[in-house]
């Protein structure tokens, strides 16, 4: 079987890691049907340097000494850590250098037929030239944070163009991101919008919403679910403000916010200031299996994303497809790649970004309509983006 090397700065640190986004792993696991897959990712204190997660061999490289002080790959996101942690910012050049060195060593010691890098930086910049220099087919996956980061720095356009030049095939989160990276580099980028995906079978509902609520210990009341990092672009503040109107229309309604991040403290304070302490639960990061049950029990998933003050926004939040697979409708902002997936009246509703009033109105409408109205179209939308289908596209690109 041919061998694929997946390179990413975001990868689960262990089995059941609840903090790190796992979409790179899920795609890599699906690709194991076609390849022997090895993943190369930065080390973080407490993570194994070598292990097997499902069908994927994982190799992690140390990039700072002492390694106990490594701060970039803790699951919060490289860009987020660089923004808020001076030590993490200082470590970024070391990570780039050691990423390239680790890839060179691995490619010298192992036969690899194709390389898939995720994000233009750091993995694309560090590993793309290595793959190109070795004559190995390079599949580049572009998300959102990398595009918006490179737009903010003076050398960003040049870096993006150089990484793209090393790629034999390019994939992106959404058509929105294809357009945004083309704007960044100043020419039309030939990319396939086929990155955002879901393991549809693993999120398929096992219980009725009432049964799922009971298993979670939730009251039998309308429940709005938020899943994501608590950072500005996720827009949680607008959802919390909208809960006052949601409670006025649906007095028993509650919000469950799963995740963590630098704005969690501010969000909890706002909840208390608005007198919503009894209506909003902050439950922290949750693992794959518990999230499945939460999507199963929620009446609606809210994705209130916005364009942050630094210009960053979403590519396509994977939580949307996870909710769809669980037959849970979504109310999402009319921003970035979200309208490509949330279809008004079919899989949920779109709301104006940064508008608590419109967000609340669409959530109320969704709850009153009931999950059953949306269940079939949500499940069908998830099936179209199953990782097995996306993996086939990647496998074909690796063979071209």
Q: What are the salient characteristics of this protein?
A:
alpha/beta, Rossmann fold, 44% helix, 16 helices, six-stranded parallel sheet, 400 residues, 2 domains
CATH fold field value of the largest domain: Rossmann fold
Gyration radius, in Å: 21 Å
Main CATH class of the largest domain: Alpha Beta
Q: How many DSSP helices? A: 16
Percent range for β-strand residues? 15-25%
Q: Determine the CATH superfamily of the largest domain.
A: Glycogen Phosphorylase B
If classified by CATH, what would the architecture of the largest domain be?
3-Layer(aba) Sandwich
- The count of domains is 2
Shape verdict: globular
Runs in which pLDDT lies below 50 for 5 or more consecutive residues are: none
The proportion of residues forming helix, as a percent range, comes to: 40-55%
Number of separate strands: 14
Helix and strand sequence: EHEEEHHEHEHHEHEHHEHEHEHEHEEHHH
Main beta-sheet strand count, sense and barrel state = 8 strands, mixed
Structural class: alpha/beta
User: Can you give the mean pLDDT?
Assistant: 95
Strand order of the largest sheet: 3-4-2-1-5-6-7-8
Give the distance, in angstroms, between the N- and C-terminal Cα atoms: 16 Å
Report on the structure:
By secondary structure, the protein is α/β, with parallel strands linked by helices. It folds into two domains: 3-197 and 386-399, Rossmann fold (3-Layer(aba) Sandwich), CATH 3.40.50.2000; 200-383, Rossmann fold (3-Layer(aba) Sandwich), CATH 3.40.50.2000. The chain has 16 helices and 14 strands. It has helices at residues 23-31, 78-84, 86-109, 119-133, 145-152, 156-165, 175-185, 200-203, 209-216, 236-249, 264-273, 288-297, 318-325, 356-369, 372-384, 387-399, and strands at residues 3-7, 36-42, 50-53, 56-61, 114-118, 137-142, 169-172, 192-193, 223-227, 254-258, 280-284, 300-303, 330-333, 348-351. Strands 3-4-2-1-5-6-7-8 form an eight-stranded mixed beta sheet, with helices on both faces. Strands 11-10-9-12-13-14 form a six-stranded parallel beta sheet, sandwiched between helices. Helix 11 (264-273) links the parallel strand 10 (254-258) and strand 11 (280-284). The mean pLDDT is 95.
């Amino acid at each position: 079987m041919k061998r694929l090397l997946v390179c990413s700065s975001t990868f689960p640190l262990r089995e059941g890691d609840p903090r790190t986004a796992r979409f790179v792993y899920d795609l890599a696991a699906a690709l194991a049907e076609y390849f022997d897959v090895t993943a190369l990712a930065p080390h973080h204190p407490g993570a194994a340097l070598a292990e097997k997660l499902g069908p994927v061999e994982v190799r992690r490289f140390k990039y700072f000494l002492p390694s106990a002080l490594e701060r970039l790959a803790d699951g919060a996101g490289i860009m987020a850590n660089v923004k808020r942690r001076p030590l993490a910012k200082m470590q970024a050049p070391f990570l780039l250098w050691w990423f390239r060195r680790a890839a060179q060593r691995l490619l010298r010691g192992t036969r690899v037929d194709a390389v898939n890098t995720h994000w233009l930086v750091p993995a694309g910049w560090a590993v793309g030239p290595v793959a190109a220099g070795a004559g190995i087919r390079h599949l580049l996956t572009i998300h959102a944070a990398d595009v918006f980061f490179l737009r903010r720095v003076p050398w960003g356009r040049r870096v993006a163009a150089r990484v793209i030049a090393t790629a034999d095939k390019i994939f992106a989160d959404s058509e929105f991101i294809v357009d945004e990276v083309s704007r960044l580099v100043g020419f039309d980028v030939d990319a396939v919008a086929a990155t955002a995906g879901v393991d549809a079978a693993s999120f398929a509902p096992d219980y009725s919403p009432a049964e799922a609520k009971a298993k979670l210990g939730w009251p039998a009341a309308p429940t709005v679910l938020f899943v994501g990092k608590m950072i500005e672009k996720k827009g949680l503040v607008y959802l919390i403000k909208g809960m006052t109107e949601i409670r006025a229309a649906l007095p028993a309604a509650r919000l469950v916010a799963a995740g963590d991040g630098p704005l969690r403290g501010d969000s909890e304070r706002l909840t208390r200031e608005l007198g919503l302490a009894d209506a909003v639960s902050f439950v922290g990061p949750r693992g794959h299996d518990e999230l499945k049950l939460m999507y199963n029990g929620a009446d609606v998933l809210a994705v209130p994303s916005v364009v942050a003050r630094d210009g960053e926004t979403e590519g396509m939040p994977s939580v949307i497809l996870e909710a769809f697979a669980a037959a849970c409708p979504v109310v999402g902002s009319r921003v970035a790649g979200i309208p490509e997936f949330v279809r008004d009246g079919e899989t949920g509703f779109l709301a104006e970004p940064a508008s608590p009033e419109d967000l609340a109105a669409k959530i109320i409408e969704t709850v009153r309509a009931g999950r059953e109205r949306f269940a079939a179209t949500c499940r069908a939308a998830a099936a179209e983006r199953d990782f097995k289908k996306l993996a086939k596209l990647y496998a074909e690109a690796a063979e071209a």
